[in-house]
Specification:
Dna Ligase, domain 1, 9 strands, 3 domains, two-stranded antiparallel sheet
Length: 378
Amino acid sequence: MSFLILALIALAGAIAWGQREFRAQGPLTDAVFFEVPRGASLRRVSEDLEAAGIVTSAMLFRLGADYAEMSGALRFGNYEIPPGASMEQVLAIVTTGGPSSFRYTATYVLRLEGTGELRLRERVPGTDEVVALADFAYEDGVPEVYSALVADGTPIAYRVSVPEGLTSWQIVEGLRAADFLSGEIAEVPPEGVLAPDTFEVRRGQDRQEIIDKMLATQQDILVAAWAGRQDGLPLADAQEALILASIIEKETSVAEERRLVSSVFINRLNQGIRLQTDPTVIYGITEGRGVLGRGIRASELRAETPWNTYVIDGLPPTPIANPGRAAIEAAVNPEDTPLIFFVADGTGGHAFAETLEEHNRNVARWRQIEAEREAAGQ
């Protein structure tokens, strides 16, 4: 009986000691990044933690995970472990499934040419400081710093950034050029149906998965926007709203102007005035494949393409790009104005006008700015 009592006391003491050790400050003196490999067992992760000097005992870490009923809750990712993190805190980090904190990030930004630029960044452990390591397009060659990280299997967080206003062809070609993705894209989606955004992806992810996500997101955005539209718009359905949104997207990148630009086009549609917008002419020339790379010729302004709003009435038959959420919302909720005209004002924005006389003055001012820039060699 005495032996049993002593054994129970010893067991209670061991449990109390284990709990103290599990919750005690850990051995790390500096923040480090730690990867939980996909499909890794608790034993492997605990031994890797001990080998990295993050925990003092792999066995005690496993016992603590079992006691907390978290032994099967490991989540794949690359996590920053702070200095002095206890085993309890480390367990919480690698099982919560929150945002992984990668030391290296690679953001692939799609471009108008149907390519993309990869921007490699490193975050200094224990800080918010981010260091630029490389910016490159694949056709220009891959820098050694990136090649070395890939060859070593270093965890890298990948993102694909799709700017507003790209065409479906540009998006598909840009994704095809990204060597960290895999799989084929079945076909180029119709214009306008892809939602521009920045997407978290994994190395080797199927390209069609990204396209499918963009399709579903844009559909949700369009349905919600159309449901909340203003009354009395000269738009027959959500597809026409998407067409108008694509024109707004290509006409201005100034957030405060979108609803004003929308009001100009809505007023023109209501009054039977042709839209006369240059981006539609350009789309009629390129059909969304690449960039024009030069000014519009006078003959092209007169050319009878389905998208040339200088010669057709109303909206073109399809969108001319993939608009973002803000442009879609502006299309169905324009400002209430009498404006009919706008032209560039030299600051990146536009000068708006209600009358042709006022508009002609704005055009003359813009031409003067152009002439001064040309004389200055800008």
